[in-house]
Amino acid sequence: MKKTNKKLIIIGGEGNGGVIASCIDDHRKKYNDFEWEVAGFLEDSGKFENIFGLPILGKTNDIKYFLEQDVYFMFAIHMVGKNKLNEKIYFKLNIPLDRFATIVHKTAFVATNVVLEPGVFVMSNAYIGHSSHVGYCSLVMANAVIGHNVIVGPLCHFTAGSMTSGYLSIGRVSSVAAGATILGGRNIGNYSVAGAHSLITKDIPDGEIHVGSPARFLRNTE
């Protein structure tokens, strides 16, 4: 039996962080699943008094204090186009992998032989096909599709409604934006972006943003 009401701290703001909090709230209210309880957020902007009605507990610089507590974490920071900065923030926190939660919404489909590394989040109605592998702290948002035999690096982000076909690889800290489609067999580099509603028919090299249909190079990521 799973331990219930494990305390969770979400690192990030109301965007991805609010989605994670709403998923846990949905599990508790609709499915009587009390595995996780959100204690609050660590958030650096100072813009919010609370997020999803939950308290701001501090900033990311306060992480050492919370690592001493009996809590788990979700890393919800993913600024599209600032991919290297996302990774820099992550490594600065120095959170052991076994302190990250892995959360999958009840309505998502994840094949039984899929590997989800620690810290992965999968939102409602998402699909992850057989023999795929999703790296740590990657976020798969609502209605996103990841096909079969897909290898995803750590800290990636699949925005709502994105479509990733089968037999492809996506490097570390890369982004598949809203409504983007990546055709099968492509290779998406590290720190790269498939732009919103783009059709990716060719490989994307490291550190590049490609947009359009068919997609073409726009600029480099930061």
Question: Could you walk me through the main structural features you see in this protein, from its secondary elements to its overall organization?
Answer:
- This protein has 222 residues and is α/β, with parallel strands linked by helices.
- Helix content is 14%, strand content 32%.
- The mean pLDDT is 96.
- β1, α1 and β2 form a beta-alpha-beta unit.
- The strands form 4 sheets. It has an 8-stranded mixed β-sheet, covered by helices on one side.
- The chain is globular, with a radius of gyration of 17 Å.
- It contains 3 helices and 24 strands.
Question: What's the quick description here?
Answer:
The protein has 222 residues and is an alpha/beta fold. Helix content is 14%, strand content 32%. It is built from three helices and 24 strands.
Spell out the key features of this protein.
about 220 residues; 6-stranded parallel β-sheet; 3 helices; alpha/beta; single chain
Mean pLDDT: 96
Structural class: alpha/beta
Rg over alpha carbons: 17 Å
User: How many beta-strand elements?
Assistant: 24
Distance between the termini: 44 Å
Order of strands, main sheet, comes to 6-9-12-15-18-21-23-24
Q: Provide a count of the helices.
A: 3
Helix percent band: 10-25%
Share of β-strand residues: 25-35%
Largest sheet report: 8 strands, mixed
Q: What is the 3D shape?
A: globular
Q: What kind of assembly state do the chains in view correspond to?
A: single chain
Order of helices and strands: EHEEEHEHEEEEEEEEEEEEEEEEEEE
Give the low-pLDDT segments.
none
